Amino acid sequence: MTAQTRLIDAIRSTLGERSLTTDPDRILPALTDWRGRFHGAAPAMLLPASTAEVAAMVRLAGEHRVALVPQGGNTSMVGGATPPADGSALLLSTRRLDRIRRIDAAAGLATVEAGVILQTLHEGAADAGCRFPLTLGSRGSATVGGLVSTNAGGTQVLRWGTMRRLVAGVEAVLPDGSVHDGLTPLPKDNRGYDLDQLLIGAEGTLGIVTAATLRLAPAIAARAVAWVGIADPQAGLDLLRRMQAATDAVESFEIIPGDTLARVLDHLPDARPPLGGSHPWHLLIEAVAATPDAEAPEALLARLLGEALAEGIAADAVIAASEAQAEAFWRLRDSLSAAERAAGAAVQHDISVPVDRMPRFMVEAAAAAEARFPGTHATAFGHLGDGNVHFHVRAPAGADPARWMAEAAPGVTAFVHDQVVAAGGSISAEHGIGQMKRDELARLGPPARLAALAAIKRGLDPRNLFNPGKLVTLAPADAGK
Ligand code: FAD
Predict the structure, then answer these.
(1) Mean pLDDT computed over 150-173
(2) How far, in Å, is the centroid of ligand 1 from the Cα of 79?
(3) Per-domain boundaries in the chain
């Protein structure tokens, strides 16, 4: 009998039949990541329904020395929630931790369990007359626990920040089975290291998040969404800076190259291009008003875009004439990842550089990658206002996709990441490290950060039982303990 089988029996007899499944058909979808690049194995998927059940499972896993891989919506872009291929770990799904415990609109706080899907949280907040101001293309699947654990970003970071700013407190089970309860937010709390912040972005390596208290924003009284054609990314940044000088109402500022938009339109046959002519670059801009007496976002965008058109910063622009058209614009943006995935082999990077350097980086790094890897096509899109783009290098036409990915991808990634580091940036802006970028993080450092990450991991999870093989590289002696 293996340690895994003994653990499964122990959990079943302690917590009952519903606390896990060993049905291969139920487990199968959880063994491959969203992009289909990582494949794992797991003899069981744990299905706790409460924090107490998570704690009991963690204690039993510790006793049997079996690793656990927490999984929420399984939308990780870095293989973060895929278990190891040797079947040594059990999956722990948060899907039954699905309660919105409390929404306090007056205080602007919501306490929700880890398995609550982002879309459900949006709906719950809207019912209470407010909103949770973070959204992303995976909102129909991504969970609160996953968002906390990846410090997710999305398309409203410009105004509201990443999860790090939106989380007021975390409840989590630590590797020794103890429960950290940080759900009651305290504006002032100086008891040393901030455990909540440590757990945000830890990718399940330090704790299993069971619930979080999240900051809500006032409901939107009105919004306007514009689509703008521009000549190059620098024009995009110039426009952003002008808008930021004039107003704090701009929530989203996304950049999309013309050829990437064409792929989205191929991918969505019922969609229409927002602008008549063809443009090398496009912007999607959203401005909102929280109160009815604020300048109407539509008038605001019309004024600012009118000035940009007159001065030649923008080449063309349209403001959505209806909520349906605004949604249609956003659908184009939200479908970029799926369209890129459908378009074939590409090495993908989620990177950031200082915002002011981003326009140059987008153009120069793409040209350098294409010159270094002949036949490839490099493209960058995303959150220009955050200095974060998704930088894709597509396989040369006619190349065998699987072979090219296996042979060329590591060199392409190292080349792109070296440029990011030289520009003072980060090789992971919002997707995390997972298993995909672990070795690149170890290669590129910086050393002080790497040493601190490993020391924290060793301190809290000395037996390396929480999501092993992700984020942190441990010395072999640590990993085998
Ligand atoms: P999973 O994929 O299940 O897990 C992600 C990581 O968190 C893993 O390491 C896992 O072990 C850990 N984890 C999950 N739940 C817990 C828990 N309760 N406790 C501890 N650890 C846990 N990300 C962005 O930041 N911005 C974007 O704009 C964005 N757009 C996307 C668009 C698409 C179409 C897709 C598919 C993904 C996108 N992502 C984006 C990536 C992804 O959606 C986020 O990383 C999201 O936060 C993952 O949530 P999840 O519930 O799916 O987590």
Answers:
(1) 96
(2) 10
(3) 3-93, 100-218, 224-336, 344-434, 446-479
480, pLDDT greater than 60: no
Instruction: Please check the confidence at residue 298 and state whether its pLDDT lies above 80.
Output: yes
Q: Which atom of ligand 1 is nearest to the CA of 203?
A: 9
pLDDT over 60 at 253, yes or no: yes
How confident is the model over 49-108, as pLDDT tens digits? 999 999 999 999 999 999 999 999 999 999 999 999 999 999 999 999 999 999 999 999
Q: What is the CATH topology of the domain spanning 344-434?
A: Alpha-Beta Plaits (3.30.70)
Where does 45-145 show beta strands of DSSP type E?
A: 45-46, 67-71, 89-93, 100-104, 109-113, 130-131
pLDDT confidence band for 18 (50 / 70 / 90): very high
- Sheet of 20-21: strands edge to edge? 20-21, 45-46, 89-93, 67-71
> Relative to the CA of 69, which ligand 1 atom is closest?
11
- pTM of this structure: 0.93
A 10 A CB-CB count for 422 gives 11
Report DSSP state, residue 50.
S
What residues form DSSP beta bridges with 154? none
Domains 100-218 and 224-336 share a fold: no
CATH architecture, domain 3-93: 2-Layer Sandwich (3.30)
Mutate which of 78, 96, 144, 150 for ligand 1 pocket (most atoms within 8 A of beta carbon): 150
CATH number of this structure's domain 100-218 = 3.30.465.10
Ligand 1 within 6 A of CB of 137? yes
Residue 241: CB partners within 8 Å, gap ≥ 6? none
How far, in Å, from the CA of 80 to the mean position of ligand 1? 8
Q: Give the span between the Cα atoms of 353 and 389, in whole angstroms.
A: 9
Confidence band of 299 (pLDDT split at 50, 70, 90): very high
Q: What percent of the chain has pLDDT over 70?
A: 99
Question: Does the beta carbon of 153 lie inside 6 Å of ligand 1?
Answer: yes
Whether residue 40 has its Cβ less than 6 Å from ligand 1: no
Q: Which of 53, 71, 167, 433 to mutate to test the pocket of ligand 1 (most atoms within 8 A of CB)?
A: 71
Atom of ligand 1 nearest to the CA of 210: 18
CATH architecture of 224-336: 2-Layer Sandwich (3.30)
